[in-house]
C-alpha cells in the first residue's frame, strides 16, 4: 500500500510525524473530491443551457425574442434578471445552507455532511430535469445550491485532515481539479445535447445525477477523519483511523497533538464568537479577502456564461460551445499543474505569477473588443482567435492559483477549535460574491461593454498587491503549527498574536468555561455537541 516512502512534517519541538503516502489515502481523497465534480458540472451546465434556443423559448421567451432583434445591442442580448437568477439562485441557497452545514460538520462529522450534500444534489437534479415551469426550475437550482453549501463545507476540511502535511496542498486541490473536470464535462455535454431538439437541455441537466450519485455512494464508503473523531470524543477509533491513513503504527506524536488540539477545541462553546478574537484575526481577514478576490478575478463570469459570452462576441452557437470546451480543457490541465507545483513552489509564487498573467490577458481582451466589436457587427476571424487564446491564458492562470488556493489556504490555516466555523465563513463569503457576480454579470456586460474586462483586470492588480504584502507562505507547515510558524513570523500579523494577546484570549476562555460550568458543566466527549 505504501508509495513514495515517509513524509515528515516537523511539529513543535522538532517532532517528525511519520506518514506514508498510501494508495488508500489517495483513493479516499479522490472519492471525497467528487463533491467538486458536482459543483463544477453545475457551474458549466448553466451557461450552456441558457444558450439553447429550446430552453430559452420555454422558460425565457423574452430573451429568445431579443436574440433575433436586429437593433439589439451586441452586448445586451442576454441581459435578463430572470435568466441571471436561474444561474445565481444556486449560490444564494448555498450561502444559507453553509450555516447548517457548519453544525452538521462539527456535530456529526465530515462524512455525513458529504452524504447530505449528495442527497440534496440528487433532489435538485430530479427537479431540474423534469422542470415544467420556471418555479420548478428555480426550486431545483435551490436544492442544488444546498448541496453546494454542504459539500463545500465538508470536502476541503476532509481533504486537509486526511492528507499528510507534505502533500496536503496537492491532495486538497483535487477538489478544485474535480470542479474543473465537472465544468469540462458540462461543456462537452452541452456541445452534443444542443443538437437534440427539443429536449436536449433536459439531458444536460439530468446527467448531473451521475456525479451526485458518486458523491452520495462515495461518502458512505469513506472513513471519517481522525480530527473529527477525536474532536467528538472517539479517541481510540481516531487513533486507528490515523494508523490506517498514515500507513504506520508510529502515530503517537501526531495523535497526541490532535488530542491536545481537540481538548482546546472542546473548551470553545461558541466557535463563531471565538473566531472574532484577536488571535484569529489574521486567518479571518485572509479568508474573507481570498474569497472576495477569487470572485472579482472575473473567472466565474466566464465559466458561468462561456457559451453565452462567446455568442455575444459574435461566435455562432456551435463555435461558442466549442470554444467553451477548449477553455474547460485548459482549466483542467492547468489545475493539474497546480497539484504538482503547489507544495514545491508554494502558494505565494503561484498567486503572484498568475496575477501578472490574468491582468495582461484581460487588458488585451478589453482592447481587442474596444477596437474590433461594434453593435451589429461580428469580430474578424483573427481577432476572435486571439480573444479565445487570451481567455485560455486567463483561465490557465486562475486554475493554478486563485481557483484551488482560494479553498486550500483557508482550510489549512484555522486551528481546530475554529476550523468548522472558519470554513463556514469561507464558503459563505465565496457564495455571496459568486451570487453577486452571477446575478450582475450579464447586466454589467450590457452597460460596461468591453470595459467589463478592464474592471476585472483592475481587481486582479489590487489582489496581487494583497498577496505580495499580506499573505504569508503556508507550504509544508503542519496545520496545528500555523500560529508559531506562520502568523507569529509575519511582519503585520505578528502584532495580533503576541503573547499578551494570547493570554488575554485564554483568560476570556477561562471565564467562559467558568460560566459554562456554573450552567451545568459538560463532559469532554460532548463538549462540541
How do the strands and helices of this protein lay out in sequence?
Layout: E1 2-7, E2 19-22, H1 23-32, H2 34-49, H3 53-59, H4 61-67, H5 81-107, H6 110-129, H7 134-162, H8 168-193, H9 200-206, H10 209-221, H11 226-231, H12 235-246, H13 252-266, H14 271-275, H15 281-296, H16 299-312, H17 317-345, H18 347-372, H19 381-399, H20 402-413, H21 416-448, H22 451-470, H23 482-485, H24 499-518
Antiparallel strand pairs: 1-2
Helix pairs in contact: 1-8, 2-7, 2-8, 2-10, 2-16, 3-4, 5-6, 5-7, 5-21, 6-7, 6-9, 6-10, 7-8, 7-21, 8-9, 8-17, 8-20, 15-20, 15-21, 15-22, 16-17, 17-18, 17-19, 18-19, 18-22, 20-21
**Total of DSSP H or I helical runs spanning 4+ residues:** 24
* DSSP helix fraction: over 70%
Q: Class by helix and strand content?
A: mainly alpha
Overall geometry? globular
Question: What does the average pLDDT come to?
Answer: 83
Question: What percent of residues are in strands?
Answer: under 5%
In angstroms, what is the radius of gyration? 23 Å
Order of helices and strands: EEHHHHHHHHHHHHHHHHHHHHHHHH
Assembly annotation: single chain
> What's the β-strand tally?
2
Question: What are the key terms here?
Answer:
529 residues, mainly alpha, two-stranded antiparallel sheet, 24 helices, 2 strands, 2% strand
Provide a descriptive summary of the structure in words:
The structure is a single chain. With 529 residues, this protein is an all-alpha fold. Helices cover 74% and strands 2% of the residues. The chain has 24 helices and 2 strands. It has a two-stranded antiparallel ribbon. Helix 1 (23-32) crosses helix 8 and helix 6 packs antiparallel against helix 10 (209-221). The longest helix is centred in the C-terminal third of the chain and has 33 residues, at 416-448. It is globular and about 70 Å long.
Amino acid at each position: 500500500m505504501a508509495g513514495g516512502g515517509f513524509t515528515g512534517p516537523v511539529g513543535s519541538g522538532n517532532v517528525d510525524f511519520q506518514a506514508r503516502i498510501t494508495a488508500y489515502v489517495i483513493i479516499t481523497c479522490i472519492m471525497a473530491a467528487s463533491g467538486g465534480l458536482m459543483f463544477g458540472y453545475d457551474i458549466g451546465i448553466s451557461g450552456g443551457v441558457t444558450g439553447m434556443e429550446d430552453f430559452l423559448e420555454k422558460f425565457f421567451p423574452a430573451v429568445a425574442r431579443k436574440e433575433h432583434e436586429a437593433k439589439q445591442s451586441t452586448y445586451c442580448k442576454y441581459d435578463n434578471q430572470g435568466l441571471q437568477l436561474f444561474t445565481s439562485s444556486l449560490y444564494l441557497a448555498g450561502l444559507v445552507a453553509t450555516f447548517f452545514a457548519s453544525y452538521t460538520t462539527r456535530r456529526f462529522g465530515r462524512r455525513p455532511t458529504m452524504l447530505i450534500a449528495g442527497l440534496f444534489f440528487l433532489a435538485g437534479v430530479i427537479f431540474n430535469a423534469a422542470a415544467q415551469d420556471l418555479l420548478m426550475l428555480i426550486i431545483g437550482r435551490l436544492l442544488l445550491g444546498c448541496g453546494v453549501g454542504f459539500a463545500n463545507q465538508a470536502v476541503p476540511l476532509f481533504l486537509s485532515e486526511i492528507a499528510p502535511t507534505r502533500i496536503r496542498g496537492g491532495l486538497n486541490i483535487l477538489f478544485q481539479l474535480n470542479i474543473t473536470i465537472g465544468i469540462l464535462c458540462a461543456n462537452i455535454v452541452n456541445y452534443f445535447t444542443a443538437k437534440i431538439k427539443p429536449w436536449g437541455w433536459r439531458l444536460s441537466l439530468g446527467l448531473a445525477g451521475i456525479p451526485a450519485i458518486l458523491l452520495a455512494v462515495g461518502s458512505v464508503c469513506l472513513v471519517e477523519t481522525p480530527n473529527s473523531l477525536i474532536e467528538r470524543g472517539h479517541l481510540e477509533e481516531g487513533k486507528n483511523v490515523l494508523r490506517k491513513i498514515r500507513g504506520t503504527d508510529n502515530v503517537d506524536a501526531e495523535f497526541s497533538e490532535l488530542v491536545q488540539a481537540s481538548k482546546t477545541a472542546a473548551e470553545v462553546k461558541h466557535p463563531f464568537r471565538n473566531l472574532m478574537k484577536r488571535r484569529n484575526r489574521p486567518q479571518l481577514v485572509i479568508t474573507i479577502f481570498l474569497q472576495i478576490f477569487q470572485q472579482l478575478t472575473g473567472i466565474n463570469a466566464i465559466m458561468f456564461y462561456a457559451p453565452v459570452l462567446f455568442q455575444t462576441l459574435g461566435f455562432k452557437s456551435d463555435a461558442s460551445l466549442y470554444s467553451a470546451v477548449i477553455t474547460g480543457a485548459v482549466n483542467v490541465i492547468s489545475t493539474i499543474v497546480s497539484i504538482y507545483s503547489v507544495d514545491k513552489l508554494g502558494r505565494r509564487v503561484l498567486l503572484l505569477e498568475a496575477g501578472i498573467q490574468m491582468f495582461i490577458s484581460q487588458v488585451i481582451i478589453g482592447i481587442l473588443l474596444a477596437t474590433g466589436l461594434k453593435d451589429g457587427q461580428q469580430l474578424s476571424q483573427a481577432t476572435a482567435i486571439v480573444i479565445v487564446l487570451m481567455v485560455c491564458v486567463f483561465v490557465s492562470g486562475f486554475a493554478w492559483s486563485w481557483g484551488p488556493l482560494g479553498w486550500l489556504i483557508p482550510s489549512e490555516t484555522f486551528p481546530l477549535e475554529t476550523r468548522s466555523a472558519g470554513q463556514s465563513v469561507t464558503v459563505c463569503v465565496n457564495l455571496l460574491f459568486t451570487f453577486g457576480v452571477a446575478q450582475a454579470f450579464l447586466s454589467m456586460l450590457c452597460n460596461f461593454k468591453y470595459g467589463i474586462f478592464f474592471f476585472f483586470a483592475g481587481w486582479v492588480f489590487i489582489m496581487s498587491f494583497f498577496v505580495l504584502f499580506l499573505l504569508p507562505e503556508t507550504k509544508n507547515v503542519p496545520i496545528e503549527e500555523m500560529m508559531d510558524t506562520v502568523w507569529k513570523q509575519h511582519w503585520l500579523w505578528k502584532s495580533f498574536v503576541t503573547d499578551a494577546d494570547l493570554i488575554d484570549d485564554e483568560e476570556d476562555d477561562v471565564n467562559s468555561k467558568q460560566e459554562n460550568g456554573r450552567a451545568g458543566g459538560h463532559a469532554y466527549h460532548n463538549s462540541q455537541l
